[in-house]
Amino acid sequence: MMITTKEALQRFEETATHYIHELDQFNMEQLKEKPSDNEWSIGQMVQHLISSALYMQLRNIDQCLMPSQDPLVPRTEKTEIGAAVFAQGSFPPIRIHVPPSPQYTPEQPASKEQLIQGLHTVIQRMKEIEPTLEKTSKENTMPHPSFGGLCAEEWFLLVEMHYRHHLLQLDHLKQGLVREAT
């Protein structure tokens, strides 16, 4: 059962606010600490959440909200994985490992303020976009690399699922910091 965009917005705000509160516990050195060479720091993980929301998910919502000038753009269907994720309402609880690369690996944050400000920016954009979603056509889709064609509402729900999914990684990274401190 898919949740409404209003419910997703509320859940998203709670999750994003949770990340903001979590950041309070750490100094910059801890936020930049990586458990291993091929894992991200807490700071990089938060950077990933901010940039994927602002530069991929929300940008794709904007694309879906603009009626296409080109009627020849085929509407792409969801992949099996995409259909399963939306049917479940969440990503599978597994670690998704992408090899380090300049295109994908997030930069270390410059400051804690940068992270907090970024999270606030995403919250603000989500609040602005949510009321516009009910008027938008489900026919307008933008392709997701794994999930196939998603409409604006699905991209919106994906932001919330993505933030929730990374709570597992946050717990894993925090445990690493605790082990090190003892």
From TrEMBL:
<protein>
    <recommendedName>
        <fullName>DinB-like domain-containing protein</fullName>
    </recommendedName>
</protein>
<feature type="domain" description="DinB-like">
    <location>
        <begin position="12"/>
        <end position="170"/>
    </location>
</feature>
<dbReference type="Pfam" id="PF12867">
    <property type="entry name" value="DinB_2"/>
</dbReference>
<dbReference type="InterPro" id="IPR034660">
    <property type="entry name" value="DinB/YfiT-like"/>
</dbReference>
<dbReference type="InterPro" id="IPR024775">
    <property type="entry name" value="DinB-like"/>
</dbReference>
